[in-house]
Amino acid sequence: DVPKIPDSRGDSDGPRRGSLCDRHCAAINNVQGDLGDLGCHLHRPRVPPATSTPSCCQQHSEEVCESCVVKTTLTAENAVEANKLSNNYKFGFKKWKSHVTARPWEDRSEIVKELYSDLNVIRGSGGSTVTCGNVLYLLLFGWWLSLLYVLVAAVMFVTVMGAPYGELCWDLAGYFLWPFGKVIQKVEVPKSHQVCEAGVGESSALLGGPTPCRWRPRCWVGTGHWLCASTIAWLCLGYPVLVVAHGLVCVTAWLLIVLIPVAKLSARASSRVLLLPPERVLIRRLRMTEVPLEGEVILCCYRAANPYYYKYAVDGINVFAVNLLPLVLVTLVLGYVDSPNHLTGSAVKFTLALLSIMPLSYYIGMAIASISAQSNFAVGAVVNATFGSITELTFYITALIKGSREGNRCYAEVVKSALTGTLVGCVLFVPGLCMVIGGIRHQEQRFNSRSAGVSSALLFLSVGGELGTGVSPGLGFPPGWVPAPCPVPAGVFAPTLFSKVYGKLVCGECHNVTQNPLGHYLCHNCHFDLMDNNGTLYYSHVQPLVYTVSILLPAAYLIGLFFTLKTHTHIYDIHISDCHMPGHHHSAVVHWSRWRALVILLLSTLCMSACADLATEHISPILTNSTISQYFIGVTVLAMVPELPEIVNGIQFALQNNLSLSIEIGNCIAVQVCMLQIPILVLFTIFYPTNFTLVFSDLHVYASMFSVVLMNYIFMDGKCDYFQGTVLVMVYFILLAVYFFAPSPSGC
After folding, report:
1. pTM, rounded to two decimals
2. Domain Sodium/calcium exchanger membrane region, which positions (predicted)?
3. Which of 119, 356, 416, 673 could disulfide-link 331, Cβ–Cβ 3.0 to 4.6 Å?
4. Domains and CATH numbers, the chain
5. Quick one: which H or E segment has residue 161?
6. CA distances to 233, 406, 521 from 239, in Å
7. pLDDT at residue 4, rounded to an integer
8. What is the pLDDT of residue 467?
């Protein structure tokens, strides 16, 4: 059902409009990107081409460009995925790349299918098995695992009764030394041949070769396999050692991610192969001319490493988040059990707590996306507004509480640095990095400048207001001299400007450099004092202004939500519909139900609070003993580490030529910092007094204003390339260098 392009000029204008529109739409066909990897397909309406004179095309080119912006239809696999895709384009909602439902197996690519295989499929000849990954397996696991099997085989031969298992271990020693291109199969032994005579072999037409006959002593009459003397000896002497070894291999290979096939190999060997009777295990080397084996294949591995395992997911959770989850448990146990720092120091605990925030941020993001996709608009909006900034707010509030208890103003300055770092990073680094990585694959990327303009306008409102002189009156400028226009801080920086204009400049010490009482003075540690005259200026003027701004900014955010989600939804030009392709009618099988997602969301938030408490508990030695400026620590580590999951989502969208969502990720975080997080911190100080005041240093003000102005300049034309992204990234690194060499803030 393709929407029609309205024709306001009659039949005579239709062919000209359609022809030129078709060419312009072909040029911007990549606005929303290829969502094939998401299981969705992008369909753009096309108008049949028609002939037109060049003069008419030139005359009406601008008008036709406006008319070709029609709704983009994104087809999803089911209604839940359709809701998730729709939420990605809504202002104020978390942008989530991964699926929240299970994708149909037939819709997946062959590469992805291979990732989830059980290593029991025999394929045709795929070339040589001597690869870098297989050699790496030999060096890391193969040689010592094979040697261990030889030692266990010797022990089993010594027991005499365990000789069948000794022979099995000898065969498995050769297999695990180089398992590639070999197959382990479970065979059925006829009852008449279950006990073989010494030196007699058995032939099987099904397998096309002799079945190895391993000597097996008779079991007691009426007993099964598990009560045989050989089995008891195996379970007591051989099996436990090999299970521990395979467990070590499995954990190590799983953590390395690219070696997950080795983890599957070890897990299947310890759970299936080693528990079978020896006479039912057949180990063979596949030949190129051999017909495929019939019967049950237990193990058949060709490659030890696969670089595509970064896409692997367990119950919808990415493998990186799964591997980092034990880190959270280690951090909590080590942090609260070893309080006196007997086992590790504060630096290690702070690093672990900070790294633990990354997987917790991922789980919170996936839980929010799952709940929003399975709920109506109102519930999704409430969940996103409540938990969208929970990661950052948890850390900030914990740091402010600790600083208030210790009477240390340094924590408040670090929180301000982290807020500024998040703002600058999401405005410059996140979109810049996405432009660079996406521009490597796509020569030029386009995005919806109208939807991006909403976030940019709100961000400009909260950071930089209207153009003005930006100087206070009465500073002694020559008559008639007008300063150059510059952005005057508004929104969150309005109290800072107010303090610069009306505050009293106080300096620590001043020296006369000319030995003349009327000459120049060199002053150090200068700041604007707002507590002059018993704090009259602050409590009567600055503090009411701070509270006023903290109320107006969330109100502006709500107006932006109402504007984009209710009255002007057409600016996104997105229409989501279910897929009706033949053979693709699938019901939604969600990874996390709403209740499960809610429980995970609450548990992740609780763990996030604990990790934030540990991070703030052990950051004090780093702030006091480090030679690096506290500004730099705040704007880099504390600001960007919690945003790493969002950065990964933005990069994945950019690689799919969907730069609109990549830009919106950074813009939405920056808007939430200014319009939600900072007002919440200010309102929190009403109920719990802290040292946090909405007065930022000059460095924070200038860095934020310059970043927002540069972002608006880059985004105004709706297209970009890797060069513009490089400019943003380079400016971000220049600002980091400024923070690195800046002196520590006062109070630290």
Report:
1. 0.75
2. 348-462, 597-739
3. 356
4. 105-186+227-311 (no CATH), 312-466+531-741 (1.20.1420.30)
5. none
6. 9, 57, 83
7. 40
8. 36
Identify the three-state secondary structure at position 246: helix
- Euclidean distance between CA atoms 742 and 630, whole angstroms: 9
What percentage of residues in the chain have a pLDDT greater than 70? Answer: 71
Angle of helix 346-373 relative to helix 390-406, nearest 10 degrees, comes to 140
> What is the spatial distance between Cα 646 and Cα 739, in angstroms, rounded to a whole number?
24
- Of 666, 667, 672, 647, residue with least CA distance to 455: 667
**Secondary structure letter of residue 479 according to DSSP:** T
Q: How far does Cα 550 stand from its chain's mean position?
A: 30
Per DSSP, the three-state class of 592 is coil
C-alpha separations of 463 from 142, 365, 415, 661 in Å: 59, 26, 17, 22
Tell me the C-alpha distance between 375 and 320, whole Å.
28
The rounded distance, in Å, linking the Cα atoms of 76 and 576 is 7
Structure confidence at residue 409 (pLDDT):
82
- Unique residue bearing structure tokens 């065969």: 171
Average pLDDT value for the chain: 75
Say if residues 681 and 397 touch (Cβ distance below 8 Å).
yes
Locus of tokens 């400007």: 497
Dihedrals φ, ψ of 195, to 5°?
-115, 110
Alpha carbon separation from 108 to 43, 317, 605 (Å, rounded):
20, 17, 33
pLDDT of residue 173: 93
d(CA 81, CA 578): 9
Structure tokens at 699: 């460095």
- How far CA 613 is from CA of 150, 375, 489, in Å, comes to 51, 32, 33
Q: Which two tokens stand for residue 640?
A: 């960007």
Structure tokens at 69: 């912006």
- Sheet of 182-186: strand order equals 281-285, 182-186, 296-301
Residues of the chain with pLDDT under 50: 1-70, 192-211, 215-218, 220-223, 288-289, 291, 465-489, 534, 578-585
Residue 464, judged by CB atoms within 10 A of its CB (0-12, 13-18, 19+), counts as buried
d(CA 657, CA 651): 10
Separation CA 679–CA 435 (nearest Å): 31
β-strand 504-506 against 527-529: which pairing, if any?
antiparallel
Measured between alpha carbons, how far is residue 645 from residues 245, 514, 592, 640 in Å? 34, 56, 19, 10
pLDDT at 207: 39
Size of the chain, expressed as the number of residues it contains: 748
d(CA 611, CA 358): 11
Distance between CA atoms of residues 661 and 678, nearest Å? 24
Residue indicated by tokens 């310890």: 270
Contact 180, 129 (CB under 8 A): yes
Q: What pLDDT is stored for residue 687 in this prediction?
A: 87
Tell me the C-alpha distance between 198 and 214, whole Å. Answer: 9
Query: What kind and span of H or E run contains 178?
Result: none
H or E element in which residue 634 lies: none
List pLDDT tens digits, range 645-663.
888 888 888 888 888 888 8
How are beta strands 574-578 and 72-76 bridged, if at all? parallel
At residue 297, the 3 state secondary structure works out as strand
